[in-house]
Amino acid sequence: MPDVLFAPWRYEYLVSEKPQTCIFCEAAASGDEEETLVVFRGEKVFVILNRYPYTNGHVMVAPYSHDAWLSDSREETLHELIATVARAEKILVAAYHTDGLNVGINFGSAAGAGVAGHYHVHVVPRWNGDTNFMTVTAGMRVVPEELSATRRRLKPLFSLEKV
Ligand SMILES: [Zn+2]
Whole-angstrom Cα distance, residue 108 to residue 88? Predict the structure, then answer.
């Protein structure tokens, strides 16, 4: 993910104790979508909000199976994964009027994965000038949208047939 993007609230994540269990497997198994921040459940993959977002609307698309690498996943999972990323792309553009998106995967802690062992595709909305804006306001905490508001905004869009 782009380290250049200044996101001071991520400090909370960086200094917090990392869970020993896999948050993606836990979210996949849990029925509490409000707590787990799941916004969409497909057949093989699901979409979950990042609890420590780089920007508003930062979602992750992950397989239900605890796969460390794309090559561990079955072909139908990979198909659904990229189709769901495409869907997330359309939804984020519609919901947040983004000018661009960062889409990426970190494999393994050496590559910066916060949760190694269960890959997840980050989809991060970007706007023209967002990093510049944050640079000039450095030192001020930029308050992101409440996660519950993000969830309320995105969940209905994912349940639509077409966006
Ligand atoms: Zn897992």
Answer: 24
pLDDT band at 154 (very low <50, low <70, confident <90, very high): very high
Give, in order, the Cα–Cα distances in Å from 32 to each of 129, 143, 160. 36, 25, 21
Query: How many angstroms is it from 21 CA to the middle of ligand 1?
Result: 8
| CB under 8 A, 24+ apart: contacts of 106-113 | 106/1, 107/68, 107/69, 108/68, 112/1
Residue-wise pLDDT for 56-80, tens only, equals 899 999 999 999 999 999 999 999 9
Which region, left, alpha or beta, applies to residue 57 given φ > 0 means left and ψ of -120 to 50 means alpha?
left
Query: What pTM, to 2 d.p., does this model score?
Result: 0.81
The residue written with tokens 């909305």 in the block is 125
Tokens of 65: 């199976």
Known catalytic residues are 120
Return the pLDDT at 38: 96
